[in-house]
Every structure is written in structure tokens, then in C-alpha cells.
Amino acid sequence: MLHKGWHCADVVDLRADSRSTYETDHATCLMCGNENMLYAHIMDHPDFNERFEVGCICAGKISDD
């Protein structure tokens, strides 16, 4: 995995229509595997063409922003 050169393109709140945390379908962070992600950080890298969604902690670890 490339750990340098990433930037955050978007942040998506997965709680549709302001539902509670318990009613929300959580996502899984593609970097660390955390299964309780409420905010998906969409990360871009010039050498990686697929959509890469991570949580806020992992986004901070790989982001140049």
C-alpha cells in the first residue's frame, strides 16, 4: 500500500436522513478494517485508480493535507 501522496477528495456522512447511530449501516475502513465507520473519507492517489474509503484516523495517517 502506498502511504504517501494521498489527499482527501470528499467526506461522506453515512447516516442518511439524520438516522441514529444504531439505525445506520456502517462501512468498513479499507486500511485498518474498522467496521464502525460513520464518516467515509474518500481518498485519492495519482497511482491508485479505485475508490478508497477510510475512516478519519487512517485518512490522517496517509494524507498530505
Plain-language structure description:
The chain has 65 residues and is mostly beta strands. The chain has one helix and three strands; from the N terminus they run E-E-E-H. Strands 1-2-3 form a three-stranded antiparallel sheet. A hairpin with a 2-residue loop joins strand 2 and strand 3. The longest helix is centred in the C-terminal third of the chain and has 7 residues, at 56-62. The radius of gyration is 12 Å and the shape is elongated. The two termini are 18 Å apart.
Quickly list its features.
65 residues; elongated; 11% helix; 1 helix; three-stranded antiparallel β-sheet; mainly beta; 3 strands
In short:
The protein has one helix spanning 56-62, and strands spanning 7-13, 39-45, 48-54.
State the separation between the terminal residues, measured CA to CA. Answer: 18 Å
Characterize the biggest β-sheet: 3 strands, antiparallel
Kindly state the number of beta strands: 3
- Number of DSSP helical runs: 1
Instruction: Please give the order of strands in the largest beta sheet.
Output: 1-2-3
The averaged pLDDT comes out at: 85
Percent range of helical residues: 10-25%
**What gyration radius follows from the Cα positions, in whole Å?**
12 Å
In terms of DSSP E residues, the strand content is 25-35%
User: What coarse outline follows from CA principal-axis ratios?
Assistant: elongated
The helix-strand sequence is EEEH
Q: Flag low-confidence runs.
A: none
Structural class: mainly beta
